[in-house]
Structure formats: C-alpha cells, structure tokens
Amino acid sequence: MTRVAAILLAVLWSSAALAQEIEEHGHGVPWHKLLFSVINLAIIVYILRRGAWPALRNWVAERRAKVAEALAQAERARRDAEALRAEWQQRLEHLGVELESMLVQARQDIAVERDQILAAAKKAAETIRRDAERTAASELRAARDQLRAEIAAQALAIAERLAPQRLTPADQQRFVSEFVAQVEQR
Questions:
Q1: C-alpha triplet 99, 102, 105: angle, nearest 5°
Q2: Could you write out the DSSP letters of every residue in 126-143?
Q3: Please, are residues 11 and 38 in contact by the beta-carbon 8 Å criterion?
Q4: What percentage of the chain exceeds 90 in pLDDT?
C-alpha cells in the first residue's frame, strides 16, 4: 500500500504544481476535474493492484514457465536428434566394413554347408554302391542257382531218355547195391 500512497502523493504534488502555474497565468484551476482525475487514477491503480495485477503476474509467470519448458524440450529434442544423426553417421561409415564381414561370413557358411552336403552325398553314394554290389551278388547267385537247376533238369531229362536205352538189368542191380551200401555206411 505504501507504493500506491507514494504514487498518489506524487500525482497530487505534481497536480498542485500544475494548478499553481495555471493560476499564475490567469486561468483558473479546475480543481474538481483534477480531484476526479486523481480519484479515478487511484481507483484504477487499486483495481489493478488487487484484482488484475496478480492474475496478470500469474499468467506471465505461467507463460514464462511454459516457454522455458518448451525451450528445454526443444533443446533435449535437438540433442537427441544430433545423437541419433551421429549414430547413423557412424553406422553409415562402418557399413562397408560390416557388409564385407557379412559377405566373408556368408562365404564361410556356404563353404561349410557345401562340405557337409558333399560328405552326405559321398556317404549316400557309398551306401548305394554297397547295396548295388550286394544286389548284383545276390542276383548272380540266384542266376547261377537257376542255371544249375536248369542244367540239372535238362541233364535229368536227357538221362531219363537215354537211361532206359543204355542201362541193362545188371547195371540197375549194381546201382541198387551201391545205394544200399552207402546207406548202411551212414
């Protein structure tokens, strides 16, 4: 309140000085206008001091805080963007090296896989070869046995045709005796 009083006192003092000067020149001082102006000014200062000034001061303080926060966020965003840009720049610089190492690794992986495939193919080929040899040997034995059976059948057929013509009753007796002797020995 002391500020308001000081302001009012300064206004009254200057008004009084102005009034005295006007009175010296012969024009009369309109004291009632001056009084109404001073009262009006006091009312406006009082309203501003009690009602509008704190609200205006709070609004300015809040606005200042919002602007400060926005500036701080903008600064953080700028730093983050710069860090991200630096990270990507570094990645781009190392991209050639990474691509080359990936290519070398891929070639090594391909070579290992190729060797594994070749080893599996060799093993499968060896298994197939052994199975084919077994099958061929089995079929060879079967063919031999069949050939022997056919030869024996043909020899028997020939013997059956020729035996009655060439065998005599003495030969038949001798075969029966030999067969009985062999049976007795066993």
A1: 155
A2: HHHHHHHHHHHHHHHHHH
A3: yes
A4: 27
